[in-house]
Amino acid sequence: MQAVDSEQLGVQANQLLASPLAIIDLETTGGHAHLDRITEIAVIEVDAGVITNVWQTLVNPHTGIPPTIQSLTGITNAMVADAPSFATLAPDLLERLTNRIVIAHNVRFDYGFLKAAFAQAGLTYQARTLCTVRLSRALYPASPRHNLDTLIARHQLQCPARHRALGDAQVLWQFLQCALSEQGHRAVDAAVRAQLKQPSLPPALDRAQIDAIPDAPGVYFFYGDNDTPLYIGKSIHLRSRVLSHFSADLRSSREMQIARAVRRVDWIRTAGELGALLKEAQLVKTHLPIFNRQLRRTGTLTSIVLNPREDSTNTRVAPHAHRTVQLHIEDLAKPLDHSGAIRYGLFRSKRTALNTLRTLADTHQLCLQTLGLEQSNTNGACFRHQIQRCAGVCAGKESAIAHDTRLRLALSAMQFVRWPWPGPIGIREQDQTTEHEEMHVIDQWCYLGTATDDTELQTLLQRRQLSMRFDPDQYKLLVRYLTPARRARVIDLHEHAQQAQAA
What we know:
CATH architecture of the largest domain: 2-Layer Sandwich
Strand content: 15-25%
Oligomer: single chain
Number of helices: 20
């Protein structure tokens, strides 16, 4: 670790912003803030436009540096072998960065790595950030590119060590000075203010309360007078999402109403996105917040059910001679169904299901009379066939098998997915920042709860028969989540459930 005298930068100090700045650059083992690690850090501290300190250090990532990264940066495994770990550097670095606006090129990358590394070291870090990519776009809109090499060429900047932390940070300091010289203080200040602009909070909310919310996955709550639930939402970036509700340029009439009514904000952190989605769907139905339009509807669900006709081979049977299947619209009392019937769709009412069937009949030339949705005509052919909206199964112009095959194809996109496991499962989800792990317990598409240890898991499994509540919103998100492409970490809990029930 070494400290570098500010004179080594070879630049003239200029007044830029009144706020203290930290111009930073990081080198890392890869591009994922929660999986890869920092290998080098540089910080240029600026106060009232004057460089007051320059600091840089290599960092031992305690993992191998990929050959491509070594080739790009010149930082090898041997160079970092004796370097301090981030945990060792963290207290000093945090002191350097505290109460400073962090400036970096593509600042989300560097800031994301810093937040993740501080969290792994057991420290909380939050800062206002300024991105020089966005600043360049705002000040030089005619330029098609704004990467660091473009800035170097466009402004003839000096970079003694490209792809090294201090060299790249020096380029940013030079760019800020060039921008002030070329565009003027007013233009630069306006572009900076646009980036740093923070939403004005409702009078009843304290900014410290908002700042305490982690920018991590979870569910947030807005409460009004007498702790009345106003709104429940979810996000993988909680604090950013909460602040977005109060952004004046994006505010809808509903969000204006929320802003006027909100008195308190609360939140629950989850390990990941799935946990946030499941919690949100569950909590909205439990608390029924005033401003949640989706997810809160409850009541009996209805499905379209097809059963094979036992007498389908007897074409002389009337009045069902044109049916190989029996179609019903039934309430979905429980998701568990071993009857062999095939269910299609989840509807809020029988009327909605009927309307869906009529639309499908029009699109696919199905016979409403054959489907049992219209009274049978004694002459055979239905009225819709006469106006060419039915292919004619009722008039003997196509077979019942052909008609009902087309019916199944028309319904196939809505087919209810059968539960593919013998019993309950657990879906593991890990918080990439803290490495905290949760297990979401699911049975017959019913979310039973989330366990963080074996005791909680056993409790959920013991109470699963009492806890099973089918939620169509949770069903839909689980069907999407449990596709092979998502590679969900699924654990079969069938044997654990049997042991729990026996206990």
